[in-house]
């Protein structure tokens, strides 16, 4: 039984965003004392995994959604992955601004998917 593009695309985007978030930010904690070019090389290695998931996710999603809808789904997923990462992995304090930003994203989703 094949998964619906409406389910498969976001699932792949969630996995992609996990890799993306680590590629973009984990080196700030884990490689702070290393030269930037080592961090960049490791980040690009992780980003390859991200792209191997993100490209098929967008191709699958584009079969049933517009590019604007795919983009807003990507942004919601990105924030949904980033906030726990920032709090639990990067040890950043919780901020209510995360909630307010999320509510703004709910509005953006509404406008991209209405009518």
UniProtKB/TrEMBL annotation:
The chain crosses the membrane at residues 7-24, 36-53, 73-90, 96-113. Keywords: Membrane, Transmembrane, Transmembrane helix. InterPro entries: DUF486. The keyword Cell membrane does not apply. Coiled coil: none annotated. It holds the Pfam family DMT_6. This is DMT family protein. It comes from Vogesella margarita. The lineage of its organism: Bacteria, Pseudomonadati, Pseudomonadota, Betaproteobacteria, Neisseriales.
């Amino acid at each position: 039984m094949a998964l619906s593009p409406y389910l498969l695309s976001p699932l792949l985007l969630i996995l992609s965003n996990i890799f993306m978030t680590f590629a973009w930010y984990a080196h700030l904690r884990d490689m702070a004392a290393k030269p930037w070019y080592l961090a960049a090389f490791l980040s690009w290695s992780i980003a390859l995994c991200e792209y191997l998931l993100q490209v098929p996710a967008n191709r699958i999603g584009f079969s049933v959604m517009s590019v604007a809808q795919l983009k807003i789904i990507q942004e919601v997923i990105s924030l949904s992955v980033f906030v726990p990462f920032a709090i639990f992995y990067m040890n950043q304090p919780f901020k209510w601004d995360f909630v307010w930003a999320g509510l703004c994203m709910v509005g953006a989703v509404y406008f991209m998917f209405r009518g």
